[in-house]
Design brief:
By secondary structure, the chain is an alpha/beta fold. The protein has helices at residues 43-52, 60-73, 87-96, 174-187, 226-236, 260-267, 280-286, 295-303, 328-337, 363-375, 396-410, and strands spanning 18-19, 103-109, 115-120, 132-140, 143-147, 151-152, 170-171, 213-216, 249-253, 270-274, 314-320, 343-349. The chain binds S-adenosyl-L-homocysteine (SAH) and iron/sulfur cluster.
Length: 413
């Protein structure tokens, strides 16, 4: 069977467990950072930062390479430890910049090792109280997958998705996207010289990296933020730094058809499509963007995605909604629809959230659906719901944290 366990989405992850005490702190607006952090910057932006502290043009390339190695290979937090950088330059850098990461406002750890972090971003201006995004780490025996966000909230309004109900929306910058991986590696002790947490369940196979895969399946629609997503992927995939394979980076879209070819051309990343319905009439209601880019156009764009082969397939995500999209006839139609497209299908059990109008399909229905797809030759694994000991659904870590804060405020803390 094809390898098909690759992707999980934050929306689908349920985690119960310990929430670290930071969550109980009342929300205070962080002061706007005086000095910018160099963490997450592209090579070009690091070059500019060096020019700004008067590093001569002839040295920019070499110095960029040095900083790159310290920041992304070593996970450096202190300019003073950059032994290949001359002391006076260390001082100039420390006077102008930091190596700070955004704050982890809350962490939830599941008994199966899944971790969900609520990351508070640095304010972009004086009025910004610091937006929050979610990031989920899913360790398995032979891989570790990090699910990252591309926006705060989402402008789209898929009717089964909690993120779509959030008001505040902005694009994440490329550094904000990259910092999610840096924070994750900090949290699981995965930079040289760090000790992994004692309760950490991490992938254990020989040569397997703690974070080997990235999926853009957290908050937001990545194809409404392609420039920053592409810049971030350049940093994530740079062989002298974080060194992720582009084939292990998957970008999930609800179907922004015109941006699919540029994504493939610019990033070489894998593509995932949130399909969820096989008829336009139904998909219009589940994924309203379908009215603009209907199923046929979407599948055509997938068929033409660069670099597809049996080994490099498009993932089609299909959330199982009871009595809505889960009939055997729809399973057969799904198989028909994807004929000729190198595809793998992920059936996702719907993850309920307060106020949601849907229920998850029964297990037998999911199995029947899965059998039809599987017998037709497409791998259709049902994503094993991770962290079934669980509380937080899509966006729920955030709402839980807000509840704790509200309680703290009421108690005058
Ligand atoms: N905006 C992008 C990526 C983020 S959503 C997209 O839509 O593809 C990541 C995945 O989680 C998508 O497949 C989305 O449809 C799915 N999802 C959203 N809410 C969900 C829920 N409540 N239960 C299960 N999956 C959900
Ligand atoms: Fe949710 Fe993705 Fe739809 Fe946005 S595009 S509302 S993140 S499923």
């Amino acid at each position: 069977m094809k390898d098909s366990r690759a992707v999980f989405s934050a929306a689908q992850i349920n985690i119960m467990t310990q929430t670290i005490e930071a969550a109980a702190r009342p929300a205070t607006a962080a002061a706007p950072a005086k000095k910018p952090s160099l963490v997450g910057l592209t090579r070009a932006a690091i070059g500019d930062a060096l020019r700004a502290v008067e590093v001569p043009e002839r040295d920019i390339r070499m110095r960029t390479g040095q900083l790159w190695h310290w920041i992304y290979f070593h996970g450096a937090r202190d300019f003073g430890r950059m032994s290949s950088v001359a002391r006076p330059l260390q001082t100039r850098l420390a006077d102008a910049y930091t190596l700070a990461r955004p704050c982890v406002a809350a962490e939830q750890v599941s008994s199966d090792g899944t971790r969900k972090w609520l990351i508070r971003l640095d304010p972009v201006d004086a009025r910004d109280r610091g937006a929050e995004i979610e990031c989920v780490y899913i360790p398995e025996s032979d891989r570790g997958t990090l699910c990252v966000s591309s926006q705060v909230g989402c402008t789209l309004t898929c009717s089964f998705c909690h993120t779509g109900t959030q008001k505040l929306v902005r694009n994440l910058t490329a550094p904000e996207i990259v910092r999610q991986l840096v924070v994750a590696r900090d949290m699981i002790g995965d930079f040289p010289g760090m000790t992994p947490p004692t309760n950490g369940l991490l992938p254990s196979g020989e040569g397997v990296r703690a974070v080997s895969n990235i999926v853009f399946m957290g908050m937001g629609e990545p194809l409404y933020n392609v420039d920053n997503v592409a810049d971030a992927i350049d940093v994530l995939a740079d062989g002298e730094g974080l060194s992720l394979s582009r084939r292990r980076i998957t970008v999930s879209t609800s179907g922004v058809v015109p941006e699919i070819p540029p994504l493939g051309g610019r990033t070489g990343a894998m593509l995932a499509i949130s399909l969820h319905a096989v008829r336009d009439e139904l998909r219009d209601t589940l994924v309203p963007l379908n009215k603009k880019y209907p199923i046929r156009d979407l599948i055509d764009a997938c068929r033409n995605y660069p670099g597809l082969s049996n080994a490099r397939r498009v993932t089609f995500e299909y959330v199982m909604l009871k009595g809505v999209n889960d009939s055997p006839a729809e399973a057969r139609e799904l198989v028909r629809l994807l004929k000729g497209v190198p595809a793998k299908i992920n059936l996702i059990p719907f993850n309920p959230w307060p106020g949601a109008k849907f229920e998850c399909s029964d297990w037998e229905t999911i199995e029947k659906f899965s059998d039809i797809v599987f017998n037709a030759g497409d791998a259709s694994p049902v994503r094993t719901p991770r962290g079934r000991d669980i509380l937080a659904a899509c966006g729920q870590l955030k709402s839980e944290t807000e509840k704790v804060r509200a309680r703290a405020r009421m108690m005058g803390e």
